[in-house]
Amino acid sequence: MSTKTRIPIHVKVSTQSILHKVDFNNLPFGKHHTDHILVCEYKDGQWQDVHIKPYQDITLDPAAKIFHYGQSVFEGMKAYKDKKGDIWLFRPFENQKRLNISAERLAMPALPQAYFMDGLCELLKLEKDWIPQTDGSSLYVRPFMFASGAGFHASPADKYLFVIACSPSGPYFSGKIKVLIEEKYARAANGGVGFAKAGGNYAAQFFPTHLAKERGYEQVIWTDDNTHQYIEEAGAMNIFVRINDTLITSPTSDRILDGVTRKSIIDLAKYKGIHTEVRRFTIDELIKASANGSLKEIFGAGTAAVISPISGFGYKGKDYALPELENSYADRFKKMITDIQYNRTEDKFGWRYKVTE
Ligand SMILES: Cc1ncc(COP(=O)(O)O)c(C=O)c1O
Prior knowledge:
Elements: E1 9-11, E2 36-43, E3 46-54, H1 65-69, E4 72-74, E5 77-81, E6 87-90, H2 92-105, H3 113-126, E7 138-147, E8 160-169, E9 177-181, H4 199-214, E10 219-223, E11 231-234, E12 237-243, E13 246-249, H5 260-271, E14 276-278, H6 283-291, E15 295-302, E16 306-315, E17 318-321, H7 329-341, E18 352-355
Parallel strand pairs: 1-3, 9-10, 9-16, 13-14
Antiparallel strand pairs: 2-3, 2-8, 4-7, 5-6, 5-7, 6-18, 7-8, 10-11, 11-12, 12-13, 12-15, 15-16, 16-17
This protein binds pyridoxal-5'-phosphate.
């Protein structure tokens, strides 16, 4: 048991590391797992001790409510290693808070901050050698919680598991992406769960994304469920557009995830004196700006890809290309954020969090 943490953490170290089997010079995103996982059970109305143990399958009752009613929420974070070998997280308390916002919406129990943070830091210290040091690579961290309690009654479960698994990962996308603006399907609706990181939101995205891929696009740009006129998100990322030198992003709502990368970009843009508008914007506005040459950039923002520049978009059977820019906002924000994440620059905002020995 750890003595430094505020909660009981039991650690069983793996005797058969698979670290040597992974090619760290050629890391896909999210494919490999590390040697250990963290598991914590909620039962009898409270969270039990945290266990860090060798990576292994999880056995569930066939009536576990995750299978039937989809009570499942997750987070996506990264751990970075700097040149000295120190480990860093980026705004981890935002993820911890968001997990509980998501959990509340799905009638799941809140996880106390110490379970999340102390458990995560203990796990990362154990998996230190798994954190890549090469530029663009990091340890992707996936905290998740789901209903393990059983029963076919359509009601919240009485037992849950909180788990953290990690994956040494390279870049999410290899270059710019071409996207399709969605005219029919919606990923979220007013009063729904779009603002939560609920597993079902992603399942609902797969089919429309598959249709877009068949038409030669890599991702879907989600529009509002009511009119399909307003631009809301880019795949599993928040969206930004640059018209002339103004940066525009949709406000968060019931339908839009409050992204950590998004809010960091808004703060960085303000700090750099870039005029930023957080407001709704329409497809018509994009098409007009594309026609008169004022549409300079569109990019997605999220933990996995950091910033994903868009090369062009399709809408109603027509393709619109974006210009190639030197010194784009996308490149500038990506550099500013990753320099903070990898401890290459001063952190004026206090976003970096050191995982101490
Ligand atoms: C739907 C959706 N929007 C936006 C984001 C970006 O959020 P963040 O920057 O916190 O990773 C994500 C990824 O987590 C997402 O799944």
